[in-house]
Amino acid sequence: MWFKLILLLIYVAVLFILARLLEAASWVETGVLSHRLLDPMTLSVLKLKTLLEQRGVSYDGVVEKPELSELVDATGKYIKIYTREREKREISTQ
Known about the structure:
Layout: H1 2-30, H2 45-54, H3 65-75, H4 80-93
């Protein structure tokens, strides 16, 4: 009886590990790990406005950060790599 239970636990553990490895492989293939999505609410107001300007979206009359975040969400996803590229360009121009 104990032997069957131990074999069952080993089987479940192996399946779990295989599932995680396959999931990690698909993340690497699609680049999800290197292009992690960010929540616009974690960005500063200045970064939100800069992002909206780059996208050609007017934010005239928008004062509150939640409203700016909604505009960013409405115009598309924001990825971390986008921020890094922008910061590199700003540093190189200084």
